[in-house]
Amino acid sequence: MRDHLGRPLVAVTGIGAVTSLGFGVAESWSRLLAGQSGIRRITRFPTDHLRTTIAGCVDLPEERGQPFTSPIRVEHMAAFVIEEAITEAGIGARGRFPGPLFLGMPPVEVEWPARFDLARKGHDPSYPGMTATAAGRHDIYETFLYGGIGERLAARFGTRGAPISLTTACATGASAIQLGLEAIQRGECDACIALGADGSVHAEALIRFSLLSALSTRNDTPEKASRPFEKSRDGFVMAEGAAALILEDYDAAKARGATIIGLVSGAGERADNFHRTRSNPDGRAIVGAMRNALADAGLEPGQISYVNGHGTGTPENDKMENFGMRAVFGDNAPPISSNKSMIGHTLSAAGALEAAFSLLAIRDGRLPPTINHDEPDPNITLDVVPNVARDATVRHVLSNSFGFGGQNVCLVLSAEPT
């Protein structure tokens, strides 16, 4: 089986997921379709005097009251979703996965609690003083080494070759899937693991996004705070989570008797260097990324059944996504909804989670809703599947990921050929 450009078809044979709605694909997906919110008050660290005090937290049972740093949280969630995905795919058992690992994750830095601890121990809060105190601390080095997580996951699951760790802001998870897709299309491997994971709900990250005026401050009703495409939206809600896809050469997967969940049939990207958080008002990069994904999949706009929107809930992003959708689809735009209305914005994990939910929408013929859609925005002229999930025949889904810094990646997920 080959695509319109003569490349191998790329099948998805396993999915793993963890979100603020639950651990595992089944729980997250069922609660998503039910329109439930995973957003709640932050209890992991003090939030006194902060403008935003809510998030979509994933509290890991192994923390036992002592919050993990972001890298450790990422590693735990990544291991969980990989294990779930390879179990479903029936490949890579006993720590011997027959292909590479593509890990999308956030940037890593020594977080405030560790820096404060170094300052206390060295009696010197300056960076040179903390650096001197940290000398010989291999635990700090191993925890905050960016490539270390990928190396440990690769060793644990027995993947082949050097693991690739990457970050492209809010498009990271989609970028990891794109790398896996292209590796199989080029014939470099028959199978790979592609995932995105993010555990960035800690004080410093929250304050930084707040200083950008990007976060919702609807603290009194956390479950109502994330309101993509709705008139009173006031920013996104930070969240954590992870999703992994097992990608395989379609023919190789069929030959071993694997169940095909769906296909990754195309990917498109387009950079926009207009502003650190805003898209260029001409929408060229957003429109280009969507069109590039459709062209890569060999599809016309009218063949898309549903769009899993980036839909962050910021006034600017939702307006630009609406603009881009109209430029690509005209007056016949397909339904679009935002998973972020329920699980929040999982940052580096968002593109992978939304690809996973897109595949499940194809499998089950159900479109997840955009909840908290109380008052339509007259400037958003799209069918956003408001508040209630919907039955639909879904053959092809466009999944949008538009990252800060103008890093835009769109994926096309498709049903298995009949």
Automatic annotation (TrEMBL):
<dbReference type="InterPro" id="IPR014030">
    <property type="entry name" value="Ketoacyl_synth_N"/>
</dbReference>
<dbReference type="Pfam" id="PF02801">
    <property type="entry name" value="Ketoacyl-synt_C"/>
</dbReference>
<keyword id="KW-0808">Transferase</keyword>
<dbReference type="InterPro" id="IPR014031">
    <property type="entry name" value="Ketoacyl_synth_C"/>
</dbReference>
<comment type="pathway">
    <text>Lipid metabolism; fatty acid biosynthesis.</text>
</comment>
<dbReference type="Pfam" id="PF00109">
    <property type="entry name" value="ketoacyl-synt"/>
</dbReference>
<comment type="similarity">
    <text>Belongs to the thiolase-like superfamily. Beta-ketoacyl-ACP synthases family.</text>
</comment>
<keyword id="KW-0012">Acyltransferase</keyword>
<dbReference type="InterPro" id="IPR000794">
    <property type="entry name" value="Beta-ketoacyl_synthase"/>
</dbReference>
<dbReference type="InterPro" id="IPR020841">
    <property type="entry name" value="PKS_Beta-ketoAc_synthase_dom"/>
</dbReference>
<dbReference type="GO" id="GO:0004315">
    <property type="term" value="F:3-oxoacyl-[acyl-carrier-protein] synthase activity"/>
</dbReference>
<dbReference type="InterPro" id="IPR016039">
    <property type="entry name" value="Thiolase-like"/>
</dbReference>
<protein>
    <submittedName>
        <fullName>Beta-ketoacyl-ACP synthase</fullName>
        <ecNumber>2.3.1.179</ecNumber>
    </submittedName>
</protein>
<feature type="domain" description="Ketosynthase family 3 (KS3)">
    <location>
        <begin position="7"/>
        <end position="415"/>
    </location>
</feature>
